[in-house]
From TrEMBL:
GO CC annotations, alphabetized: cytoplasm
Stored Pfam families: FMN_dh (PF01070)
Cofactors: FMN
The UniProt record lists the keyword Nucleotide-binding: no
Residues that, per the record, bind FMN: 80-82, 109, 134, 162, 234, 256, 289-293, 312-313
Protein name: Oxidase FUB9
Residues where glyoxylate binds: 136, 171, 258, 261
Domain FMN hydroxy acid dehydrogenase: 1-336
Catalytic residues identified in the record: 258 (proton acceptor)
Molecular function in Gene Ontology: FMN binding; oxidoreductase activity
Keywords of this entry: Flavoprotein, FMN, Oxidoreductase
Recorded superkingdom: Eukaryota
Amino acid sequence: DPDQKILSIADLEREASKKLGKSAREFYNSGSTDQITIHENSTAFSRYRLRPRVLVDVSGVDTSTTVFGRSISFPLSVSPAGLQAMAHPDGEAASSRACARKGVNMAISSFSNYSIEAVRAAAAEIGAIDHAIQLYTMRDRELEERIIRKAEAAGCKAVFLTADSPVLGVRYNEWKNDFRTPEGLEFPVIELTTHKVRSQTHDSGFVAFNDDSHSWARDIPWLRARTKMQIWIKGVLTAEDTELAVEHGCDGVIVSNHGGRQLDGVMATLDALPECVEAAKGRIGVHVDGGFRSGTDIFKALALGADCCWVGRPAIWGLAVSDILALSLSARHVFG
Ligand code: FNR
């Protein structure tokens, strides 16, 4: 059926949304409260127009860039997003394989359904890529320390400290659907088994787990004392916080609003990017995620000073329709 051909990320979203059940679909696709920020993330790109030059030799274009000290094939990688096994049984292991196949990096969510070791091993069968471990500021500091040690031992190159989630964003869909983790799925990174996972909603689980008394002064030196991995702060939207990341010796910031799933009403990441780039003054890396759905989106962010872009939902939609995608549509074809 030609109407079902997947040529763009919008097509991918449409087909994935047909395949996923309501509760999973809304969990993946929605933002928080009024959906303002999730909408703006992707519409912000259309406020910029390209100014192309012509008669330039593009026969030997090289899209590669360097991240965590190693070359990746093009400036896009897969953001940390939890619960990927709800979209496909192979979940984060499959995402990791896909990243390895395309030569890009991946960040592993604290709420991954596969262990750090399993995600690393899945990629290693195909090729060398780098992984970051995404962390929250946890109440259980011993568990946080165990995760860091495991990630470092498994070869992860960076910690992404997600700083935009002192409390979980208010997502009406999760409340309306009484969203629970499906039977049989676990969260091995944070050492949570099926039974414990199903007895609580995502929100109540998060409250019990996350420490909202976090701060730059407490958490960055604590991390630095425990790992040689790079430290990136995920969820920065301002020049002020970029400056603080520099002052605290962080390796970079990821300009992010959690895909519009946390505080609704914050600016689109593309609009927040220039002030963060300006504040960083080249001293630390500036990456960005939120609403990237085409190659020109990536181009616009790079033109505004980003070093690399990341995507969350497009990878999940890819997992959900992976059987349709047997024709081997590659992220590179859509984005490149
Ligand atoms: C996320 N995101 C996220 N971020 C994070 O730091 N830790 C996490 O566990 C999760 N989990 C998560 C689950 C799902 C289903 C989604 C869609 C997103 C946010 C993610 O890392 C990223 O910031 C956004 O997904 C980027 O926006 P797009 O590309 O999805 O528009």
